[in-house]
Design brief:
- This protein is 78% helix and 0% strand.
- By secondary structure, the chain is an all-alpha fold.
- The chain has a single domain (60-211, 223-251), classed as MetI-like fold (Orthogonal Bundle).
- It is globular, with a radius of gyration of 22 Å.
């Protein structure tokens, strides 16, 4: 039985990581076509000399950074409020945001922005992308915070109140330190999801707000480029590191 499970696990990992392995290998290929002609690092260097890719990377970092900070703060407070109020129906409704297809979420946000900005004559741009990313990132934060709060003893807050502390002091000195591993894990998860998003971003982005995933998709449609391979490897390593950190911190919840 164990050998059979090991075989199935090996097959699963093969399907998951074999394409990434091929991608990584050809990112060091001296040829521009999928035929090995020698080892080189030139494609990694050319990525840093591509102004369009650097601009897209900067846009993605700004969007992911702002969306992460905003969604982490709002989501932490919202998760704490849901936990205090004991609202299971609201907790279950959070999973609707996670289960909804991205295309549905993107179209709904686009329709909302078109309706809301009609009165203010505001066009699509970086601000709409940031708002959209905050919208779909909030559910991740609230769910992680609620998972952390399930192991939190309310008696600790009651003890603080009995000792004369205000509700704000209890929250700042007792609750937040206890939630800190979950908050950091939620922030890392939000940054990863925001930086990597393409479908929703492509629908709500405007002029001069192209992100790195959008540029990679546009480059890949013209053919597999060694620069795309190199950039994809760097993104995979960077985001993979964040995911591992988020997973370790979430396990501490």
């Amino acid at each position: 039985m164990r050998r059979l499970l090991a075989v199935y696990a090996g097959i699963a990992y093969l399907f998951l990581y074999a394409p990434l392995a091929v991608l990584a290998v050809f990112s060091f290929n001296a040829s521009k076509i999928a035929v090995w002609q020698g080892f080189t690092l030139q494609w990694y260097g050319s990525v840093f000399h591509n102004s369009a890719l650097l601009e897209g990377t900067l846009n993605s970092l700004v969007i992911a950074g702002v969306a992460t900070i905003a969604s982490t703060i709002i989501g932490t407070l919202a998760g704490y409020a849901i936990w205090k109020r004991r609202m299971p129906w609201l907790t279950n409704s959070l999973y609707l945001s996670l289960l909804s297809p991205e295309i549905v979420t993107g179209v709904s946000l686009l329709a909302f922005f078109a309706w809301a900005f009609r009165f203010g004559h505001v066009q699509l741009g970086m601000h709409t992308v940031i708002l959209a990313h905050i919208s779909f990132s909030l559910a991740y934060v609230v769910i992680v915070i609620l998972a952390r709060l399930r192991t939190f003893d309310p008696a600790l807050e009651e003890a603080g109140l009995d000792l004369g502390a205000t509700e704000w002091e209890v929250f700042r000195r007792i609750t937040v330190p206890m939630l800190l591993p979950g908050i950091v894990a939620a922030a890392l998860l939000c940054f990863t999801v925001s930086f990597d998003d393409y479908v929703i971003t492509s629908l709500v982005a405007g002029v001069n707000s192209e992100t790195l995933p959008m540029m990679i998709y546009a480059m890949a449609r013209k053919g597999v480029s060694p620069e795309v391979n190199a950039l994809s490897v760097m993104i995979t390593v960077g985001l993979g590191t964040l995911i591992l950190l988020a997973g370790k911190l979430e396990q501490r919840t």
